[in-house]
Design a protein that fits this description.
Layout: E1 10-14, H1 22-37, E2 42-46, H2 48-51, H3 58-75, E3 83-86, H4 92-101, H5 106-110, H6 113-119, H7 128-142, E4 148-150, H8 156-172, E5 183-185, H9 220-229, H10 248-261, H11 265-272, H12 277-302, H13 306-335
Parallel strand pairs: 1-2, 2-3, 4-5
Bound molecules: tryptophanyl-5'AMP (TYM).
Protein backbone atom coordinates (compact mmCIF):
# COMPACT_ATOMS: atom_id res chain seq x y z
CA UNK A 1 0.00 0.00 0.00
CA UNK A 2 1.32 3.47 -0.85
CA UNK A 3 2.28 5.68 2.11
CA UNK A 4 -0.63 7.94 3.12
CA UNK A 5 -0.48 11.65 3.80
CA UNK A 6 -2.72 12.91 6.56
CA UNK A 7 -4.41 16.28 6.75
CA UNK A 8 -4.29 18.14 10.04
CA UNK A 9 -7.08 16.94 12.33
CA UNK A 10 -7.39 17.59 16.06
CA UNK A 11 -8.83 15.09 18.53
CA UNK A 12 -9.08 15.23 22.29
CA UNK A 13 -11.17 13.79 25.09
CA UNK A 14 -12.19 14.46 28.67
CA UNK A 15 -13.67 11.96 31.12
CA UNK A 16 -17.17 12.68 32.41
CA UNK A 17 -16.32 11.82 35.98
CA UNK A 18 -17.44 14.43 38.45
CA UNK A 19 -16.33 18.00 38.47
CA UNK A 20 -14.21 19.55 35.77
CA UNK A 21 -11.53 21.57 37.53
CA UNK A 22 -9.17 24.42 36.75
CA UNK A 23 -6.46 21.94 35.68
CA UNK A 24 -8.74 20.42 33.02
CA UNK A 25 -9.78 23.89 31.93
CA UNK A 26 -6.34 25.53 31.67
CA UNK A 27 -4.46 22.38 30.61
CA UNK A 28 -6.97 21.19 28.02
CA UNK A 29 -10.36 22.78 27.33
CA UNK A 30 -9.10 26.36 26.98
CA UNK A 31 -6.59 25.08 24.46
CA UNK A 32 -9.37 23.26 22.55
CA UNK A 33 -11.15 26.61 22.18
CA UNK A 34 -7.97 28.29 20.89
CA UNK A 35 -7.43 25.53 18.33
CA UNK A 36 -11.04 25.78 17.22
CA UNK A 37 -10.63 29.56 16.75
CA UNK A 38 -7.71 28.90 14.40
CA UNK A 39 -10.13 27.10 12.08
CA UNK A 40 -8.79 23.57 12.63
CA UNK A 41 -10.92 20.52 11.89
CA UNK A 42 -11.48 19.17 15.39
CA UNK A 43 -13.33 16.51 17.36
CA UNK A 44 -13.85 16.87 21.12
CA UNK A 45 -15.08 13.77 22.82
CA UNK A 46 -16.70 12.94 26.15
CA UNK A 47 -14.85 9.72 26.86
CA UNK A 48 -17.55 7.84 28.77
CA UNK A 49 -16.13 4.39 27.98
CA UNK A 50 -12.96 5.44 29.76
CA UNK A 51 -15.01 6.52 32.77
CA UNK A 52 -16.38 2.99 33.34
CA UNK A 53 -12.88 1.52 33.81
CA UNK A 54 -13.74 2.25 37.45
CA UNK A 55 -17.31 1.72 38.72
CA UNK A 56 -19.70 4.60 38.07
CA UNK A 57 -23.21 5.10 39.30
CA UNK A 58 -25.24 4.92 36.04
CA UNK A 59 -27.57 7.84 36.91
CA UNK A 60 -24.67 10.06 37.94
CA UNK A 61 -22.71 9.11 34.81
CA UNK A 62 -25.68 9.94 32.58
CA UNK A 63 -25.93 13.38 34.12
CA UNK A 64 -22.14 13.94 34.10
CA UNK A 65 -22.07 13.29 30.34
CA UNK A 66 -24.62 16.07 29.77
CA UNK A 67 -22.84 18.33 32.22
CA UNK A 68 -19.54 17.88 30.43
CA UNK A 69 -21.23 18.65 27.10
CA UNK A 70 -22.65 21.81 28.70
CA UNK A 71 -19.18 22.65 30.01
CA UNK A 72 -17.60 22.26 26.57
CA UNK A 73 -20.19 24.61 25.09
CA UNK A 74 -20.01 27.11 27.96
CA UNK A 75 -16.21 27.24 27.61
CA UNK A 76 -16.58 28.22 23.95
CA UNK A 77 -16.68 25.01 21.91
CA UNK A 78 -19.15 25.45 19.11
CA UNK A 79 -20.90 22.49 17.51
CA UNK A 80 -21.01 24.41 14.21
CA UNK A 81 -17.23 24.54 14.14
CA UNK A 82 -16.09 21.38 15.96
CA UNK A 83 -17.58 17.91 16.41
CA UNK A 84 -18.76 17.41 20.01
CA UNK A 85 -19.90 13.90 20.90
CA UNK A 86 -19.70 11.04 23.36
CA UNK A 87 -17.43 8.09 22.78
CA UNK A 88 -19.96 5.33 23.52
CA UNK A 89 -22.18 6.56 20.65
CA UNK A 90 -19.55 5.77 18.02
CA UNK A 91 -18.87 2.05 18.01
CA UNK A 92 -15.59 2.45 16.09
CA UNK A 93 -13.80 3.40 19.32
CA UNK A 94 -14.52 0.05 20.99
CA UNK A 95 -13.89 -1.90 17.76
CA UNK A 96 -10.50 -0.33 17.13
CA UNK A 97 -9.59 -0.64 20.82
CA UNK A 98 -9.95 -4.43 20.47
CA UNK A 99 -7.66 -4.43 17.43
CA UNK A 100 -5.11 -2.38 19.39
CA UNK A 101 -5.39 -4.72 22.39
CA UNK A 102 -3.98 -7.29 19.97
CA UNK A 103 -1.17 -4.95 18.86
CA UNK A 104 -0.03 -3.41 22.15
CA UNK A 105 2.37 -5.49 24.29
CA UNK A 106 1.69 -6.23 27.95
CA UNK A 107 5.18 -4.88 28.73
CA UNK A 108 4.27 -1.52 27.19
CA UNK A 109 1.11 -1.23 29.29
CA UNK A 110 3.04 -2.26 32.41
CA UNK A 111 5.14 0.88 32.06
CA UNK A 112 2.15 3.26 32.19
CA UNK A 113 2.47 5.42 35.30
CA UNK A 114 -1.21 6.41 35.30
CA UNK A 115 -2.26 2.77 35.71
CA UNK A 116 0.17 2.40 38.62
CA UNK A 117 -1.22 5.57 40.24
CA UNK A 118 -4.87 4.68 39.69
CA UNK A 119 -4.65 0.99 40.58
CA UNK A 120 -2.60 1.78 43.68
CA UNK A 121 -1.40 -1.14 45.81
CA UNK A 122 -4.27 -3.39 44.87
CA UNK A 123 -3.30 -4.00 41.22
CA UNK A 124 -4.82 -7.50 41.12
CA UNK A 125 -8.21 -6.03 41.85
CA UNK A 126 -8.13 -3.35 39.12
CA UNK A 127 -10.33 -3.90 36.06
CA UNK A 128 -8.73 -5.19 32.85
CA UNK A 129 -10.28 -2.08 31.27
CA UNK A 130 -8.18 0.17 33.50
CA UNK A 131 -5.04 -1.70 32.45
CA UNK A 132 -5.96 -1.62 28.74
CA UNK A 133 -7.15 2.00 28.92
CA UNK A 134 -4.28 3.40 26.78
CA UNK A 135 -5.24 1.09 23.88
CA UNK A 136 -8.74 2.61 23.93
CA UNK A 137 -7.19 6.07 24.06
CA UNK A 138 -5.06 5.21 21.00
CA UNK A 139 -8.23 4.01 19.26
CA UNK A 140 -10.02 7.28 20.08
CA UNK A 141 -7.31 9.24 18.30
CA UNK A 142 -6.49 6.89 15.44
CA UNK A 143 -10.11 6.06 14.54
CA UNK A 144 -10.10 9.57 13.04
CA UNK A 145 -6.53 9.56 11.72
CA UNK A 146 -6.07 12.55 14.04
CA UNK A 147 -2.69 14.22 13.74
CA UNK A 148 -2.72 16.57 16.77
CA UNK A 149 -3.90 15.98 20.31
CA UNK A 150 -4.20 18.85 22.83
CA UNK A 151 -3.70 17.41 26.33
CA UNK A 152 -2.16 18.16 29.71
CA UNK A 153 1.34 16.88 30.37
CA UNK A 154 -0.02 13.90 32.37
CA UNK A 155 -1.27 12.35 29.11
CA UNK A 156 2.08 12.58 27.30
CA UNK A 157 3.03 8.98 28.06
CA UNK A 158 -0.29 7.73 26.65
CA UNK A 159 0.34 9.77 23.50
CA UNK A 160 3.78 8.17 23.12
CA UNK A 161 2.13 4.75 23.44
CA UNK A 162 -0.42 5.77 20.79
CA UNK A 163 2.47 6.53 18.44
CA UNK A 164 4.11 3.16 19.25
CA UNK A 165 0.83 1.36 18.51
CA UNK A 166 0.43 3.22 15.20
CA UNK A 167 4.01 2.41 14.16
CA UNK A 168 3.71 -1.28 15.12
CA UNK A 169 0.39 -1.68 13.29
CA UNK A 170 1.76 0.01 10.16
CA UNK A 171 4.88 -2.21 10.28
CA UNK A 172 3.14 -5.49 11.17
CA UNK A 173 0.69 -5.15 8.29
CA UNK A 174 3.04 -3.38 5.85
CA UNK A 175 0.78 -0.34 5.49
CA UNK A 176 3.24 2.59 5.67
CA UNK A 177 1.73 5.58 7.45
CA UNK A 178 -1.82 4.13 7.39
CA UNK A 179 -2.17 5.40 10.95
CA UNK A 180 -0.51 8.81 11.51
CA UNK A 181 1.94 9.54 14.34
CA UNK A 182 -0.12 12.02 16.35
CA UNK A 183 1.63 14.91 18.08
CA UNK A 184 0.66 16.19 21.52
CA UNK A 185 -0.11 19.90 21.84
CA UNK A 186 0.69 20.88 25.42
CA UNK A 187 -0.24 24.32 26.75
CA UNK A 188 2.99 26.15 27.72
CA UNK A 189 1.92 27.96 30.88
CA UNK A 190 -0.44 25.27 32.18
CA UNK A 191 1.02 21.87 31.28
CA UNK A 192 0.31 20.60 34.81
CA UNK A 193 -1.72 22.60 37.30
CA UNK A 194 -0.89 21.37 40.79
CA UNK A 195 -3.02 20.76 43.87
CA UNK A 196 -3.70 23.84 46.00
CA UNK A 197 -2.81 21.79 49.08
CA UNK A 198 0.40 20.13 47.85
CA UNK A 199 2.50 21.58 45.04
CA UNK A 200 4.06 18.19 44.27
CA UNK A 201 0.71 16.57 43.28
CA UNK A 202 -1.33 17.47 40.21
CA UNK A 203 -4.76 19.00 40.65
CA UNK A 204 -7.08 16.06 40.25
CA UNK A 205 -10.76 15.10 40.39
CA UNK A 206 -9.90 12.11 42.53
CA UNK A 207 -8.12 14.03 45.30
CA UNK A 208 -10.24 13.42 48.44
CA UNK A 209 -9.80 17.07 49.48
CA UNK A 210 -12.11 19.41 47.60
CA UNK A 211 -9.90 22.28 48.84
CA UNK A 212 -7.12 20.94 46.57
CA UNK A 213 -8.90 22.08 43.40
CA UNK A 214 -11.08 24.81 41.93
CA UNK A 215 -14.11 23.22 40.27
CA UNK A 216 -15.80 24.99 37.39
CA UNK A 217 -19.02 24.76 39.41
CA UNK A 218 -17.61 26.46 42.54
CA UNK A 219 -19.24 29.77 43.43
CA UNK A 220 -17.27 33.00 43.87
CA UNK A 221 -17.04 32.75 47.67
CA UNK A 222 -15.77 29.20 47.56
CA UNK A 223 -13.14 30.09 44.94
CA UNK A 224 -11.95 33.02 47.09
CA UNK A 225 -11.79 30.75 50.16
CA UNK A 226 -9.87 27.99 48.36
CA UNK A 227 -7.29 30.49 47.08
CA UNK A 228 -7.01 32.16 50.49
CA UNK A 229 -6.33 28.74 52.06
CA UNK A 230 -4.01 27.56 49.25
CA UNK A 231 -0.68 26.40 50.62
CA UNK A 232 2.25 28.81 50.08
CA UNK A 233 5.55 29.53 51.82
CA UNK A 234 6.69 32.50 53.94
CA UNK A 235 8.70 34.21 51.17
CA UNK A 236 7.34 37.09 49.06
CA UNK A 237 6.91 36.84 45.28
CA UNK A 238 10.42 36.63 43.76
CA UNK A 239 11.94 38.67 40.95
CA UNK A 240 12.69 35.91 38.49
CA UNK A 241 11.40 32.53 37.35
CA UNK A 242 14.47 30.45 38.47
CA UNK A 243 13.78 31.58 42.06
CA UNK A 244 10.45 29.70 41.86
CA UNK A 245 12.14 26.39 41.08
CA UNK A 246 12.21 25.16 44.68
CA UNK A 247 8.86 26.72 45.62
CA UNK A 248 6.28 24.42 43.99
CA UNK A 249 3.18 26.01 45.56
CA UNK A 250 4.26 29.58 44.74
CA UNK A 251 5.20 28.47 41.24
CA UNK A 252 1.78 26.90 40.74
CA UNK A 253 -0.14 30.03 41.77
CA UNK A 254 2.01 32.22 39.51
CA UNK A 255 1.43 29.82 36.60
CA UNK A 256 -2.32 29.82 37.15
CA UNK A 257 -2.34 33.61 37.11
CA UNK A 258 -0.17 33.75 33.97
CA UNK A 259 -2.35 31.24 32.17
CA UNK A 260 -5.55 33.16 32.97
CA UNK A 261 -4.01 36.53 32.13
CA UNK A 262 -2.59 35.06 28.88
CA UNK A 263 0.88 36.27 29.77
CA UNK A 264 4.18 34.69 30.83
CA UNK A 265 5.15 33.86 34.44
CA UNK A 266 7.92 36.52 34.18
CA UNK A 267 5.25 39.15 33.44
CA UNK A 268 3.41 38.14 36.64
CA UNK A 269 6.68 38.40 38.62
CA UNK A 270 7.37 41.84 37.13
CA UNK A 271 4.01 43.02 38.36
CA UNK A 272 4.03 41.43 41.82
CA UNK A 273 7.68 40.93 42.87
CA UNK A 274 8.38 41.76 46.50
CA UNK A 275 4.68 41.52 47.41
CA UNK A 276 3.51 38.94 49.98
CA UNK A 277 1.08 36.18 48.99
CA UNK A 278 -1.55 37.83 51.18
CA UNK A 279 -1.54 40.62 48.55
CA UNK A 280 -1.34 38.33 45.51
CA UNK A 281 -4.01 35.80 46.48
CA UNK A 282 -7.04 38.14 46.29
CA UNK A 283 -5.86 39.28 42.83
CA UNK A 284 -5.57 35.65 41.79
CA UNK A 285 -9.03 34.85 43.14
CA UNK A 286 -10.40 37.83 41.23
CA UNK A 287 -9.00 36.75 37.88
CA UNK A 288 -10.22 33.15 38.39
CA UNK A 289 -13.71 34.34 39.31
CA UNK A 290 -13.92 36.71 36.36
CA UNK A 291 -13.01 33.90 33.94
CA UNK A 292 -15.03 31.06 35.50
CA UNK A 293 -18.10 33.01 36.68
CA UNK A 294 -19.70 33.44 33.22
CA UNK A 295 -18.85 29.82 32.33
CA UNK A 296 -20.53 28.44 35.44
CA UNK A 297 -23.59 30.59 34.79
CA UNK A 298 -23.86 29.27 31.24
CA UNK A 299 -23.37 25.64 32.32
CA UNK A 300 -26.30 26.05 34.71
CA UNK A 301 -28.46 27.62 32.01
CA UNK A 302 -27.61 24.91 29.49
CA UNK A 303 -28.41 22.18 32.01
CA UNK A 304 -31.98 23.53 31.96
CA UNK A 305 -32.16 22.59 28.25
CA UNK A 306 -31.21 18.91 28.16
CA UNK A 307 -32.84 18.39 24.74
CA UNK A 308 -30.51 20.97 23.20
CA UNK A 309 -27.49 19.23 24.68
CA UNK A 310 -28.68 15.82 23.49
CA UNK A 311 -29.16 17.20 19.99
CA UNK A 312 -25.60 18.53 19.89
CA UNK A 313 -24.29 15.13 21.01
CA UNK A 314 -26.45 13.17 18.56
CA UNK A 315 -25.46 15.35 15.60
CA UNK A 316 -21.83 15.15 16.71
CA UNK A 317 -21.95 11.35 16.84
CA UNK A 318 -23.36 11.24 13.27
CA UNK A 319 -20.48 13.40 12.00
CA UNK A 320 -17.90 11.47 13.98
CA UNK A 321 -19.15 8.17 12.50
CA UNK A 322 -18.89 9.63 8.99
CA UNK A 323 -15.16 10.06 9.58
CA UNK A 324 -14.41 6.92 11.58
CA UNK A 325 -16.52 4.31 9.76
CA UNK A 326 -14.40 4.25 6.57
CA UNK A 327 -11.20 4.16 8.66
CA UNK A 328 -12.46 1.17 10.69
CA UNK A 329 -13.56 -0.52 7.45
CA UNK A 330 -10.09 -0.06 5.93
CA UNK A 331 -8.49 -1.33 9.15
CA UNK A 332 -10.60 -4.51 9.01
CA UNK A 333 -9.67 -5.01 5.36
CA UNK A 334 -5.98 -4.63 6.20
CA UNK A 335 -6.43 -7.29 8.90
CA UNK A 336 -8.24 -9.68 6.52
CA UNK A 337 -11.54 -9.21 8.37
CA UNK A 338 -13.64 -8.61 5.26
CA UNK A 339 -17.23 -9.70 4.94
CA UNK A 340 -17.42 -13.01 3.04
CA UNK A 341 -21.17 -13.49 3.47
CA UNK A 342 -22.38 -10.86 1.00
P1 LIG B 1 -8.84 13.56 31.98
O1 LIG B 1 -10.31 13.43 31.83
O2 LIG B 1 -8.20 13.07 33.24
O3 LIG B 1 -8.41 15.06 31.80
C1 LIG B 1 -8.86 15.84 30.69
C2 LIG B 1 -7.76 16.73 30.20
O4 LIG B 1 -7.32 17.60 31.27
C3 LIG B 1 -5.90 17.50 31.41
N1 LIG B 1 -5.58 17.65 32.84
C4 LIG B 1 -4.73 18.57 33.31
N2 LIG B 1 -3.99 19.53 32.70
C5 LIG B 1 -3.23 20.32 33.47
N3 LIG B 1 -3.17 20.22 34.83
C6 LIG B 1 -3.89 19.27 35.49
N4 LIG B 1 -3.85 19.17 36.80
C7 LIG B 1 -4.72 18.39 34.71
N5 LIG B 1 -5.56 17.37 35.04
C8 LIG B 1 -6.06 16.93 33.87
C9 LIG B 1 -5.56 16.09 30.92
O5 LIG B 1 -4.20 16.00 30.54
C10 LIG B 1 -6.50 15.95 29.75
O6 LIG B 1 -5.97 16.57 28.60
N6 LIG B 1 -7.03 9.85 29.19
C11 LIG B 1 -7.59 11.17 29.16
C12 LIG B 1 -8.85 11.30 28.33
C13 LIG B 1 -8.74 10.75 26.94
C14 LIG B 1 -8.11 11.37 25.84
C15 LIG B 1 -8.31 10.49 24.75
C16 LIG B 1 -7.40 12.56 25.70
C17 LIG B 1 -9.27 9.59 26.52
N7 LIG B 1 -9.01 9.42 25.17
C18 LIG B 1 -7.80 10.79 23.48
C19 LIG B 1 -6.89 12.85 24.43
C20 LIG B 1 -7.09 11.96 23.36
C21 LIG B 1 -7.95 11.58 30.57
O7 LIG B 1 -8.17 10.77 31.43
O8 LIG B 1 -8.11 12.91 30.72
Amino acid sequence: MASQRHKKRIFSGVQPTGNIHLGNYLGAVKNFVKLQALGNEALFCIVDLHAITVWQDPKALYSSIRELAATFIACGLDSNKSILFSQSQVSGHAELAWVFNCVVRIGWLNRMTQFKDKAGKNKENASVGLFAYPALMAADILAYHATHVPVGEDQKQHLELTRDIAIKFNNDYQVPNFFPNPEPIIEETAPRIMSLRDGSKKMSKSDPSDMSRINLQDDDDLIALKIQKAKTDQEPIPEDVPSLAKRPEANNLVNIYASLASCLPEDVLNEFNGKPFSFFKPKLAEIIISELGPITKEINELMEQPDEIDKVLNDGAIHAREISDPIIKSTYEILGLTNNCK
